[in-house]
Specification:
Blueprint: E1 2-7, E2 10-15, H1 20-26, E3 50-54, E4 61-64, E5 74-77, H2 81-97, H3 102-110, H4 131-140, E6 146-148, E7 155-157, H5 172-176, E8 182-187, E9 190-195, E10 200-209, E11 216-219, H6 220-230, H7 234-237
Parallel strand pairs: 1-5
Antiparallel strand pairs: 1-2, 3-4, 3-5, 6-7, 8-9, 9-10, 10-11
Bound molecules: iron/sulfur cluster (2 copies) and FE2/S2 (inorganic) cluster.
The site of one iron/sulfur cluster (SF4) has 14 residues, from helix 4 and helix 5.
């Protein structure tokens, strides 16, 4: 069912279940995000996407636009003075905790925050956005990553801090990490998956050679997972993308 929503004074019709973030994007209105990716369920943790939501008459409340679904007659302000100030505070805290995380630096600078108010860990760029955890669970389907501890001690880790028995070395978590603190490196016939400066190596893989050109390209764990999932024949599944393989 289509419902009507007004964002920054512009009224549009969207389908029920649409989030404020997507309704705003449909109107060409950009709201900043750090923990959002359309490939996975929203998590609402970074809070940089906050906006004001109201019925247009009563008091507005502050909500996270990435996981707040619009309702008929909803009025949204994405850049009111209150929102800009709150976003600045959120970005200041994020920059304080992760002073070298580039996307945080860039976004904070757009809001005039270049010097953080507090001292954080210059060697920890992980903003705990959970994108790696969600993509591994919801897209890849192996749930190899998670969080440990609570509060300031919270960390994104492999289970029990050991090499994950379920990780297949696909690199999807690396691809979605907004701060680039996850890395996947192929060296000869070895693939290493690690978090920030190799202080936390999640897993090492032996790469199998392409059956056509001989180049090492695919962890055995990934090959077996993909072969089983898509019922691929052996030769097709072990041919690299350059030689016309499936590119898994
Ligand atoms: S590389 Fe491992 S941890 Fe990362 S998404 Fe793939 S299976 Fe999950
Ligand atoms: S490693 Fe990257 S994707 Fe994972 S929680 Fe940290 S910042 Fe987010
Ligand atoms: S993008 Fe909405 S809370 Fe992070």
């Amino acid at each position: 069912m289509a419902i009507t929503v007004t964002i920054d004074g512009r009224t549009t019709s969207v389908e029920e279940g649409t989030t404020i973030l997507h309704a705003a994007r449909d109107l060409g209105i950009e709201i900043p995000t750090l923990c959002h990716n359309d490939a996975v369920e929203p998590y609402g943790v970074c809070r940089v996407c906050i906006v004001e939501a109201s019925d247009g008459k009563g008091r507005a409340k502050v909500v996270t636009s990435c996981n707040y679904e619009v309702w008929d007659g909803l009025h949204v302000q994405t850049g009111s003075e209150q929102i800009m100030e709150a976003r600045r505070t959120i970005l200041d805290l994020l920059l304080s905790a992760h002073p070298n995380a580039k996307p945080v630096q860039d976004l904070a600078a757009q809001y005039g925050v270049t010097e953080p108010s507090y001292t954080g860990d210059p060697e920890d760029d992980c903003i705990l956005c959970g994108l790696c955890v969600r993509v591994c669970d919801q897209v890849v389907g192996v749930s190899a990553l998670g969080f440990s501890n609570r509060g300031p001690a919270r960390k994104m880790v492999s289970p029990f801090l050991d090499p994950s028995p379920t990780c297949i070395g696909c690199g999807s978590c690396v691809y979605v990490c907004p701060t680039r603190c996850l890395h996947i490196v192929d060296e000869g016939n070895k693939r290493v998956l690690y978090k920030q400066d190799r202080k936390n190596v999640f897993k090492e893989f032996e790469l199998l050679p392409c059956l056509s050109c001989g180049r090492p390209f695919l962890p055995r764990e990934q090959l077996e997972y993909v072969r089983k999932k898509f019922k691929l024949p052996r030769k097709l599944a072990q041919t690299c993308p350059t030689c016309g393989g499936p590119g898994v």
